[in-house]
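Hi R.,

As promised on Friday, here is the backbone we talked about, encoded as structure tokens. Could you run it through your design pipeline when you get a chance and send me back a sequence?
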């Protein structure tokens, strides 16, 4: 039932630490107000397993206990990637380590205490005062754990054990395609809320003007309880179109509330040409969560015959790119504004679609894509697994968990038009096709408004096309093998095998060494030649969504990965893959 009385919206407080790296000396936060949110960004202490006494991360995990000797730990800033901080924490087989921080918390007033981490890679265990309060796997996606039972009044020791070892990651996906940056990669915080609270809301608009609000929350009560909120909707020009109270019913035990739909009338549609965003302000009662401002767009995406259509208009021949999240000195830790300039420059050059490869990106990246009118293919981190491995319970459960969490977080972004359930997996087998079928079927129970795919490298040997909405193929003719002049005929064959579904080249390109003279492989001349030839063959091909270059940025690769280069030998240390700048003939969209 609904709580009695009229709810008063809580005021939002700006988090002074968010997006700011502070000095790395002290790792003790001053006392904060008992209700609301306390940032955990800033100074922590960290040590790799090799720097600790034997057994510190095993059993009861002594390194998580309040009285553990911290003399072997070094100051670091969170968020950060472990290997980007110190070279000895960077190893081909990965490491395990522990983060520690002391935080003042007042557990009074009947409030509950949660730890929230936006991205902890890869397998992470969370402790408060030595007690394990939760765990997560995968990275790139948020996790919230209930620490109420472990919190004491005053000083509390928060510890996170991070396992980014190759052996741990390889249990559910493949590590060798690129460098695996472990650590608390994005922001973290303490959230203090009542026993029933809203922890997140998304807003999606469709072409008919229906706005769907979806809330997630916590509820420790025996039955479902509703939280009353105040919702204000404004058009892109700022004009108010709707103001009303909305109840979100949180089920017993917490989780997803029943979706709420609102009719805003004839909407201004979001498109690449006109990325119109509405403003939705949701005021939440004090102690029942944080008030939020959301920026949804109203649009539909579908397949019509052999084409992808947005708002009924055919979308084709898009220029795009893939994007790793690596950056010098940061690893895979991305401050919210870090890629804004990059995306704006690429948009100005004519690029209109991109794919974060091969893992979920950050909400800030998607928000910029929303504003620019760029389309996004977002993907779960399941790559190059064999068919039999794909259908093991461990891999399937991990993939479904990643897909669910990705959809829950990112469905409010109109730029996201395709969900991908993996990259270059063994879909040339019956087991691989079974995995694609089951993951896409599951995905459509979560979100039936977008398209689904699995990015393939099997071309005419792939057995999973029947289960996909749109076919994305990685094509490296002219680099790894195949004739540079055979790209169009290959797409013809793939589309025929897929029953005429829309197709897209999801990766193509060649490595190049900046300034290398000559015309052969490994030179910028050959790289540009490949781009020109692919555009000549595919740029005006009917029923083709487009093609995406690999990649827009450099990234650090695993030392066993050669990247098809004839001029570099395998090494025992990480190597940086440099795709080079796209030629003007490619960039002009």
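Update: got your reply. Pasting your designed sequence below so it's all in one thread:
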């Amino acid at each position: 039932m609904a709580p009695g009385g009229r709810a008063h919206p809580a005021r939002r407080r700006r988090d002074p630490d968010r997006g700011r790296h502070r000095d790395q000396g002290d790792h003790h936060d001053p006392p904060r107000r008992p209700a609301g949110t306390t940032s955990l960004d800033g100074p922590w202490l960290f040590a790799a397993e090799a720097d600790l006494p034997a057994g510190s991360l095993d059993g009861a995990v002594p390194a998580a206990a309040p009285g553990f000797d911290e003399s072997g730990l070094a100051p670091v800033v969170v968020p950060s990637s472990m290997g980007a901080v110190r070279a000895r924490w960077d190893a081909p087989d990965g490491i395990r380590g522990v983060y520690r921080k002391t935080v003042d918390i007042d557990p009074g007033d009947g409030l509950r205490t949660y730890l929230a981490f936006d991205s902890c890679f890869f397998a992470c265990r969370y402790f408060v005062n030595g007690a394990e309060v939760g765990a997560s796997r995968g990275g790139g996606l948020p996790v919230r754990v209930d620490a109420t039972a472990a919190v004491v009044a005053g000083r509390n020791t928060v510890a996170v054990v991070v396992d980014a070892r190759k052996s741990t990651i390889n249990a559910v996906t493949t590590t060798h395609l690129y460098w695996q940056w472990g650590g608390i990669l994005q922001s973290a915080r303490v959230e203090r809320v009542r026993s029933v609270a809203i922890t997140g809301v998304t807003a999606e608009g469709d072409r008919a003007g229906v706005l769907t609000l979806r809330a997630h929350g916590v509820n420790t009560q025996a039955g479902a309880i509703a939280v009353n909120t105040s919702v204000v909707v404004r058009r892109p020009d700022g004009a108010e179109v709707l103001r009303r109270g909305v109840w979100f019913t949180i089920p017993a035990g917490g989780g997803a509330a029943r979706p709420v739909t609102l009719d805003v009338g004839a909407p201004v549609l979001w498109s690449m040409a006109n990325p119109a965003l509405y403003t939705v302000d949701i005021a939440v009662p004090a102690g029942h969560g944080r008030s939020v401002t959301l920026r949804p767009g109203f649009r539909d995406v579908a397949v019509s015959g052999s084409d992808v259509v947005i708002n009924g208009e055919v979308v084709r021949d898009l220029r795009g790119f893939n994007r790793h999240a690596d950056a010098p000195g940061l690893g895979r830790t991305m401050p919210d504004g870090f890629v804004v300039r990059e995306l704006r420059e690429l948009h100005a050059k004519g690029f209109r679609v991109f794919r974060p490869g091969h893992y979920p990106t950050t909400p800030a990246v998607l928000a910029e894509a929303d504003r620019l009118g760029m389309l996004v293919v977002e993907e779960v981190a399941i790559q190059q697994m064999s068919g039999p491995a794909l259908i093991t319970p461990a891999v399937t459960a991990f993939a479904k968990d990643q897909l669910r969490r990705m959809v829950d977080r990112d469905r409010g972004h109109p730029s996201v038009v395709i969900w991908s359930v993996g990259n270059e997996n063994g879909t040339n087998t019956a087991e691989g096709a079974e995995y694609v079928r089951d993951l896409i079927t599951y995905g459509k129970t979560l979100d039936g408004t977008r398209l689904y795919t699995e990015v393939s490298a099997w071309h005419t040997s792939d057995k999973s096309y029947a289960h996909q909405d749109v076919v994305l193929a990685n094509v490296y003719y002219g680099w790894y093998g195949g004739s540079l002049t055979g790209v169009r005929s290959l797409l013809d064959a793939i589309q025929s095998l897929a029953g005429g579904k829309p197709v897209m080249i999801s990766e193509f390109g060649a490595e190049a060494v900046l300034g290398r003279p000559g015309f052969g492989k490994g030179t910028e001349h050959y790289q540009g030649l490949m781009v020109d030839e692919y555009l000549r063959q595919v740029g005006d091909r009917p029923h083709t969504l487009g093609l995406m270059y690999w990649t827009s940025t450099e990234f650090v690769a695993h030392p066993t990965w050669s990247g098809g280069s004839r001029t570099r030998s395998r090494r025992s240390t990480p190597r940086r893959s440099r795709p080079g700048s796209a030629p003007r003939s490619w960039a002009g969209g």
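One thing I noticed while checking it: DSSP finds ten helices and 33 strands in the chain.

Thanks again,
M.
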